Amino acid sequence: MQKAEISETIPSSAIRNRSWKIPRNILYPFVTLLIVLTVWEVIGQLNLIDPFMFSWPSKIFVQAQIFFISGEVFKHLAVSGMEVGLGFAMALIGIPIGLAMGYWKKLELAFDPFVTALYTTPMIALTPLFVLWFGLETLSKVMMVFALSVFPILINTMSGVKMTESSLIKAARSYGANEAQMFKEVIFPSAIPFIITGIRLAIGRALIAVVVAEMLAGNIGIGYAIRHASELFQTAQYLAYVVVLMVISVLLTELLKVFEKKLAPWRNS
Hints:
CATH class: Mainly Alpha
CATH superfamily: MetI-like
Mean pLDDT: 84
Structural class: mainly alpha
Number of strands: 0
Oligomer: single chain
Shape: globular
């Protein structure tokens, strides 16, 4: 009797709210992916896809199992990861440069045309030149990653500084804030979302850079593995390596989103 009375006093809405639900940002993409893979697999099983030209999920999964079990993929990932890591770490110099160019107008006027020109230049076309300058080893890939990654970070950081509300700057000045305090307390926090966006864009460009560089001038790495599989017309293996790259890119992007929530919690509210 007592239990019945207690259950009656609990609102049904509270019981529903306590029930576990899958977040929509996970559920919706999962359902979309499941539908796409199912349709894709059915088309493949009906022999509507030429395996020489393309492949389908089950065959790609089998190939992925093979190179994961053999450990071959980890060898390539280790090399590509090191090259991306070094190049990307160097590209973070775009943050202080972007802060400076966004804050001091004269710096922006002096260098913005060159930044724009370099950003819009198809750096991939310069890969042979990078190989000529830095050789066939790791350095040429690192410099390619740096060249493609630095400008999205720099430009977005500069935009973040310029988007800082003038009322915040005036308030800081009225309280006697010096230049260092202005950067630390007002400008940098305001630019954080833009910096994170620049880093997210740069991740994709970094992966493109390392893959293209390894495809053109490499004997190890994910780019080399993709080129090798394509030369042997192993389409399923080729696509399996591409899927690995896609998964890594998504995971890095999601980690950045979590990092952004820690650094800029006010943006979510």
